[in-house]
Amino acid sequence: MTSAPLAARLTHVAGPLFFPVTAYGPDGAVDLDAFRAHVRSGIDAGAAAVFACCGTGEFHALTPEEFRLVVAAAVEETAGEVPVVAGAGYGTALAIQYAKLAEEAGADGLLAMPPYLVLADQEGLLGHYAALAAATGLETIVYQRDNAVFTPETVVALARTPGIIGLKDGYGDLDLMQRIISAVRTELPGQDFLYFNGLPTAELTGLAYRGIGVTLYSSAVFAFAPDIALAFYRALESGDDELANALLDHFYRPLVELRAKGRGYAVSLVKAAVRLEGLAVGDVRSPLTEPPAAHVEELAAIIERGRALLEKCGQEEAVSGERG
């Protein structure tokens, strides 16, 4: 855990947010050495933060003790270089238990995922996240998606809740997000409340979210191709529309279309890609399943095409520099 507040460290970042996969050994047990290597590679590549044991990290499949060990491993490996945020979910009592385990393991904050299965009203959702935020000293980011979709009024109430510092949107309704941002800005002028684009393969909607002022985003691609993810991030930051559009057209859109071919591919396809890059992180745990060989081959081709675009861009820049 670092001394600086999480909100302050995430307000101005210089790279994508890294959501590592959780590594398993041949026997199916958590492989902490492989996980540490995965986290270290992301930090060395330029990750702005590590979100451990979240959706991509198969939070749903981890026992409480495994969760604690994995979060602690992320904290040890980052050694304060970047903040570590841990997932927390299920019903209120279990979410609080996971939050306390994350605090014990040294995490800097929580990503509060939707409650398990139930369809709660706005009052119930607000009570759930307020209880979770009050249970520890960790700053909390609330994840909007599936059965946890908020009205602007509820987000204003969340923003007023001590310990809640932001909203990660995995729902994708830009009209709703604009109204949320406007409501918080109007009702709480001067308060810095963070917003994150949390859609799967968030880069595909990066330009749209930037249009309403949301620049922070989670990058599943960073887990297996940080060079491509960083190139896209920098293209957005610098206004390099040519490179951003080329990557959208020839890498991100094909990747999203492949992701749509299988259930659970937002996790299993990412894990397959990490293995393609040479790190043995094991298969996904049940009830998720592995993508078939044909889809893994297609994935490899998409990654190769993305890197070819970067190489082409680099060569063109070198030629332009020589001519200049």
Automatic annotation (TrEMBL):
EC numbers: 4.2.1.41
Swiss-Prot/TrEMBL keywords: Lyase
Organism: Streptomyces yanii
Presence of keyword Ribonucleoprotein: no
Pathway the protein takes part in: Carbohydrate acid metabolism; D-glucarate degradation; 2,5-dioxopentanoate from D-glucarate: step 2/2
HAMAP family attached to this UniProt entry: KDGDH (MF_00694)
Protein name according to UniProt: Probable 5-dehydro-4-deoxyglucarate dehydratase
Presence of the UniProt keyword Nucleotide-binding in the record: no
Similarity comment: Belongs to the DapA family.
Reactions catalysed, as given in the entry: 5-dehydro-4-deoxy-D-glucarate + H(+) = 2,5-dioxopentanoate + CO2 + H2O
Gene3D superfamilies per record: Aldolase class I
Alphabetical list of PANTHER family matching this protein: 5-DEHYDRO-4-DEOXYGLUCARATE DEHYDRATASE 2-RELATED, DIHYDRODIPICOLINATE SYNTHASE
